[in-house]
Design a protein that fits this description.
Blueprint: E1 3-7, E2 17-23, E3 29-36, H1 42-45, H2 51-57, H3 66-80, H4 90-122, H5 133-139, H6 141-162, E4 171-172, E5 175-176, H7 182-189, H8 197-217, H9 219-224, E6 231-236, E7 248-252, E8 258-263, E9 272-275, E10 284-287, H10 291-294, E11 297-298, H11 301-307, H12 314-326, H13 337-357, E12 376-383, E13 386-394, E14 400-406, H14 408-411, H15 413-428, H16 436-447, E15 466-470, E16 476-481, E17 487-488
Helix pairs in contact: 2-3, 4-6, 4-13, 5-6, 6-8, 8-13, 11-13, 12-13, 15-16
């Protein structure tokens, strides 16, 4: 009998979502969907607000990646203020970059060690009571301890540049509002034996080795799980280097051929369109020249390492060369390799932070730049989860009249839906009984993209998952509550 499986909520991700899987009489999957069930409405909330308020207001989109929204909005309002983000003062540019790389460092560490590593360290079908960060603390205390200190280090970088660890006020239209003090710099650069920039680089290398060791012993699982080709999009520097703060837009196809390159992101709307669908609040962006069917793309660590030519820090570049050699230089379409790419970015961020902390421009210099006022501006930045777009129009009274946001997870919407379908088709299809471990594999596929569905929510121990199997008339056939032996028909 046809039935529908519902996973709600999806756990160990930021925000609230659900998955539905439809199965026919032969237990074969016929349809899968990832639904985003929240509606935040920030594109309307900011209308009528003064432009200088927006850079602080939009951070409330999320408690995990507020710095990304803060800086992206600031870059858009730079343009409105008549200042291109690559024409800021040296102090403002370097302080913003330090803030941003601190955000990348702490967010990537949070995702890999706190949210994703339990599936790798214990197995996808392990006991869910252990398959969480508390379980990692018990079984791998050194890994967990270092992860906590790494995230703390990234948050301290944010605090000294933005004023607060969460929802700071450091960036302003046209610049920044503070210098780094010598004491703040020394606390991060020299610090203590286990809390300094050199130690973070060392531990980032250890995290990479942890993943690579797991990949070597679970090659079939890591390489083959939810793997599929796609297009890829990110910012790249003028020379093709990875640049997480600024650059031009580059898109490549599954073969690595460039679809467009070094596009000024002020013109993004000429290259990227968005589609809505009735069953989710999240839109589906696509590359205009390829159309809705073929134009979907991925963003984030996997995409960034597929689009860039090199990484401008020596240790991360060495790891990048190993990573690229694994696919003979071709774009990598393996979803679980998102973690590998993410950890290479952790190492790169640690190197950049260490180098920036030695720069005297952080301690003194002009903070602000002004220019000729404009009525419209676009900001783009590489957030931890991928390319983030902020687009604003502002009237003569400095009030916002239009706002369009394309967040990273939105761009990965189609890819996550395809990852869900891959697991449903390869793991669940053909089985009468659906186990907790099978359901977790659906979540593992989504989790690889580190989705930020709006604001943070994390589950420990018993995860609140309620599964209902219904026929086409909506009548309940069976019910399954995760971590319970109770089933009803």
């Amino acid at each position: 009998m046809p039935r529908k499986i519902t996973i709600e909520p999806v756990t160990r991700v930021e925000g609230h979502g659900k998955v539905t899987i439809r199965i026919d009489d032969d237990n074969r999957v016929t349809d899968t969907r990832l639904h985003i069930v929240e509606f935040r409405g920030f594109e309307r909330f900011v209308q009528g607000r003064p432009l200088w308020e927006v850079v602080v207001l939009v951070q409330r989109l999320c408690g995990i990646c507020p710095v990304s929204h803060h800086l992206c909005a600031a870059k858009a309002m730079d343009v409105v203020s008549g200042v291109r983000s690559d024409h800021l003062t040296p102090t403002a540019d370097k302080m913003r970059r330090l803030m941003h790389y601190g955000q990348m460092f702490q967010s990537h560490v949070l995702h890999f060690f706190h949210l994703a590593s339990p599936d790798l360290l214990f197995g996808m079908e392990s006991d869910p009571a252990q398959r969480n960060i508390v379980g990692v603390l018990g079984a791998f205390p050194e890994v967990a301890r270092k992860a906590v200190l790494m995230r703390k280090f990234g948050q301290e970088v944010i605090r000294v540049t933005a004023g607060k660890k969460i929802h700071g006020t450091g960036a302003l239209p046209g610049g920044i509002n503070k210098h780094l003090t010598a004491e703040e710099r020394d606390a991060l650069l020299v610090g203590t034996f286990e809390f300094n920039a050199d130690r973070m680089v060392e531990w980032a290398q250890e995290g990479l080795e942890l993943f690579k060791a797991h990949q070597r012993t679970h090659k079939d699982l890591i390489d083959g799980f939810a793997a599929f080709p796609s297009n890829y999009l990110s910012l790249v520097r003028a020379d093709g280097a990875l640049d997480l703060y600024h650059g031009g837009l580059r898109a490549v196809d599954e073969f690595g051929e460039k679809i467009f390159d070094h596009v000024d992101y002020q013109e993004y709307a000429s290259y990227i369109a968005e589609e809505t669908r009735s069953w989710t609040y999240m839109k589906f962006p696509f590359i205009r020249s390829l159309g809705r069917e073929k134009g979907w793309y991925r963003v984030g660590p996997l995409a960034r390492l597929n689009t860039c030519d090199f990484i401008p820090s020596p240790l991360a570049q060495a790891e990048f060369e190993i990573y690229k050699a694994y696919t003979q230089g071709r774009p990598n379409g393996m979803s679980m390799h998102m973690h590998w790419a993410r950890l290479i970015e952790v190492l790169h961020a640690a190197e950049v932070i260490r180098d920036l902390l030695k720069d005297p421009d952080l301690l003194s210099g002009e903070l602000m730049t002004t220019g000729v006022r404009r009525g419209e501006g676009v900001g783009v930045i590489e957030a931890p989860r991928g390319t983030l777009f902020h687009h604003y129009q502002v009237d003569e009274h400095d009030l916002v009249t239009m706002c369009n946001l394309i967040v990273s997870t939105t761009s990965n919407n189609e890819a996550m839906n395809r990852a869900v379908h891959w697991v449903a088709d390869h793991v669940i299809s053909g089985h009468e009984d659906v186990t907790e471990g099978m359901l977790n594999q659906v979540e593992v596929a989504i989790r690889a993209y580190d989705p930020c569905l709006s604001c943070a929510t994390h589950a420990l121990g018993q995860m609140p998952l309620h599964l209902r199997v219904e026929n086409e008339q909506g009548e309940l056939l069976r019910e399954f509550v995760r971590d319970s032996s109770t089933h009803s028909a």
